[in-house]
Amino acid sequence: MNEVYIFNTAKSAVKSIILTASVYPKPGLITPIDNNALDGTEFPALVDSAMSLFQCFINLASAGADTETLSPSDAFTILKSPGKIGSNDSLLASRGKLSMKGHILLMGLICAAAGRLLAQKRILTPSALTLTASAFAQGITERELWPLTENASGKILTAGERSYITYGIEGCRGESEHGYINIMKALETLRKLEATQGQLNTREMMTHTLITIMAELQDTNISANGGIGELMRVQKEAKEILSAGGMLTAEGVNAVLNMDKNLRLRGVSPDGSSVILSCAVLIRELVKMRLTRSGYDE
User: Fold this and answer.
1) Closest alpha carbon to 112 in 157, 150, 73
2) pLDDT tens digits, one per residue of 156-197
3) What percent of the chain has pLDDT over 70?
4) H/E/C letters for each residue in the chain?
5) 10 Å Cβ neighbour count for 118?
6) What's the CA gap between 61 and 132, in Å, rounded?
7) CA distance 243 to 239
8) CA–CA gap between residue 239 and residue 253 (Å, rounded)
9) Quick count: other Cβ atoms within 10 Å of Cβ 268?
10) How far apart are the C-alpha atoms of 203 and 32, rounded to whole Å?
C-alpha cells in the first residue's frame, strides 16, 4: 500500500469539505462571512468537524485497499466501522452539533473506492471512482431505509430517515446506490465552467454549481424540516436564478444573494446540496493523482 497516496486521499476529502464550506454566497448555508448556521453552529466548528474526519478517511481509504479481493458487499461491512467512529469524532469536535453522516457515507465510499483502485493499479477517473463507490453501497436503501416504515416508532431519526418515511426520498443512500448521479452532474458543471468561464474564480464557480444542484436535488434536509412544498419552492427559486444567469451575470448574483436572505428568514438549509458539491470537488481532486513507479502520488 502506498501510504502517501492514502494520506493524500484523506487530505483531499478534508480539503473538499473545508473548501465548500468557505464558498460565499451559499444560500441558507454556513460561510466564513455569515459564520452561523441556522442551528447556531459556527464556521470554526464546521472546520474542526471536517479536520476530525481525517483519520476516518485514512481508515476508509486503507480499508478499501486492504479489501480489494473481497466482494463489494463484504468490503462494505468492514467499511461501516470506521464510518461510525468518524461520526462520533465529528460530534465531539463540534460539541454535538455535526455528525457529518452524509459526508462520511458519500465521501467515505469515494475514499474507499480510491484505495481499492490503488490496490488494483487502476487510474482514477470519475467513472471508476463512482462506479466502485456505488458497488459498495448496493442494497443499502433496502437494508437501512425500508425497515423504518414499520419500525421507526420511538427511534431518533436523521433528517434523511424522516424524509424517506414521509416522502420516500432516499437521500445520500440513494445517491450512493444509484451511481452518484447528482455528484457527476455537479462535476460536469464545474468542468464546463472551468473550460468556458475563465472570468470566474473558483469560489464563484462553486456557488454557481451549488445552485445547479439545488435546482434538481431532492434535498432531504429541506424536505424533512420544511416539507415537500418547501423543497419544490427552493428548486423553483434555484431554476429562476439559473435562468437569470446565476453567477455569470450581475442579475443572477443579486438573485443568489436574495435567495440567501430568504432561505435564512424561512429557516431553510440545503445541507444535502452542500454534501453533493463537496463530493464533486473531492473527485476533481482525486483525478489529479497519477500512477508513478513508486505508486500513486500527487
Assistant:
1) 73
2) 788 889 999 999 999 999 999 999 999 999 999 999 999 999
3) 93
4) CCHHHHHHHHHHHHHHHHHHHCCCCCCCCCCCCCCECCCCCEHHHHHHHHHHCHHHHHHHHHHHHHCCCCCHHHHHHHHHHHHHHHHHHHHHHCCCCCCCHHHHHHHHHHHHHHHHHHHCCCCCCHHHHHHHHHHHHCCHHHHHCCCHHHHCCCCCCCHHHHHHHHHCCCHHHHHHHCCCHHHHHHHHHHHHHHHHCCCCCHHHHHHHHHHHHHHHCCCHHHHHHHHHHHHHHHHHHHHHHHHCCHHHCHHHHHHHHHHHHHHHHHCCCCHHHHHHHHHHHHHHHHCCCEEECCEEEC
5) 24
6) 12
7) 6
8) 13
9) 23
10) 13
From CA 87, how far away is CA 23, in angstroms rounded? 23
User: If you search the block for the grid coordinates 458519500, which residue do you land on?
Assistant: 106
State pLDDT tens for residues 27-38.
999 999 876 666
C-alpha R_g of the chain: 18
Residue extents of the structural domains in the chain: 3-297
Angle, CA of 61, 65 and 71, to the nearest 5°: 110
From the number of C-beta atoms within 10 Å of its C-beta (0-12, 13-18, 19+), residue 69 rates as: exposed
Long-range contacts of 149-154 (CB under 8 A, 24+ apart): none
